[in-house]
Amino acid sequence: RQSRLPVYVMGLLVCAVILLIQDLDRPTSGFIHVSQQPMVDAVTGIVTGENPPQ
Predict the structure, then answer these.
(1) Has residue 17 been placed in a domain?
(2) Which residues of 12-50 are buried (b: 16+ CB within 10 A; e: fewer)?
(3) Range of the domain at 19
(4) Domains contained in the chain, number
(5) What pLDDT, on the 0 to 100 scale, is given for residue 52?
(6) pTM for the model
(7) Do the beta carbons of residue 42 and residue 36 sit within 8 Å?
(8) What is the tens place of the pLDDT at every residue in 2-52?
(9) Domain-embedded: residue 54
(10) Surface-to-core class of residue 5, CB atoms within 10 Å of its CB (0-12 exposed, 13-18 middle, 19+ buried)
């Protein structure tokens, strides 16, 4: 009889990927925090026509 361990591991991995996607979709909350400042700088540069700082 085959082991069910691979099925459980795949289920756990699918759940982990879904949780990671949900966490990354909300950059200001959750376990992973991503600053929005680069996006703000990019929008400001596009609107004003300036090149972003290197």
Answers:
(1) yes
(2) eeeeeeeeeeeeeeeeeeeeeeeeeeeeeeeeeeeeeee
(3) 5-48
(4) 1
(5) 57
(6) 0.57
(7) no
(8) 899 999 999 999 999 999 999 888 877 878 777 888 889 889 888 988 765
(9) no
(10) exposed
